[in-house]
Design a protein that fits this description.
Strand content: 15-25%
Shape: elongated
Structural class: alpha+beta
Number of strands: 5
Distance between the termini: 66 Å
Helix content: 25-40%
Oligomer: single chain
Radius of gyration: 28 Å
């Protein structure tokens, strides 16, 4: 079966379209380059792909939520959550919002809006939180995904096991 004969008509039968699809899938080149070399338009290729139900749905795992937390907080200031959110203001640049939320009451204890995302901004927000709550100390657990938490300034706040 010749690809050039199929592409001249552009009305491929199932076996012809499947042949081209397999040819493209098995190629080491990109889809675009392979289709260009065999003179098949991308729109025709994807139309065949959809027409013959060859598009697979993404694999995902369905998770259901529990009725209650496994380890719920029982009092105010038992657990705090910190977060850094960034957003861009057109004409002004990037801004970073550092917040501390009480897990039990869901109340934002303190927040700071800064133009940097330095460790000092996090420590300043935590200092504001201590002042607002009247507590003298707070300990945190290290989250590897937070790059600013690895800063030397943060070692005072973090309990590493």
């Amino acid at each position: 079966m010749s690809v050039s004969n199929i592409t001249k008509r552009m009305m491929a039968s199932f076996s012809e379209a499947l042949y081209i699809i397999r040819l493209v899938e098995d190629s080491e080149l990109s889809i675009r380059r392979t289709l260009a070399e065999i003179n098949v338009s991308r729109s025709s290729f994807y139309r065949w792909y959809w027409a013959y139900n060859l598009v697979t749905s993404p694999q995902f795992m369905v998770m259901s939520a529990a009725d209650a937390f496994q380890h719920p907080t029982r009092r105010v200031h038992e657990l705090w959550q910190t977060d850094f959110t960034y957003f861009r203001v057109v004409g002004w640049g990037w801004y970073f919002l550092s917040t501390v939320l009480d897990d039990y009451s869901r109340y934002i204890i303190s927040w700071r809006l800064t133009t940097t995302m330095a460790a000092s901004d996090v420590t300043d927000t935590l200092d504001d939180t201590l002042k607002a709550t009247g507590l003298t100390e707070a300990r945190g657990h290290h989250k590897p995904r937070l790059m600013c938490m690895k800063a030397e300034e943060m070692t005072f706040w973090i309990d590493d096991p």
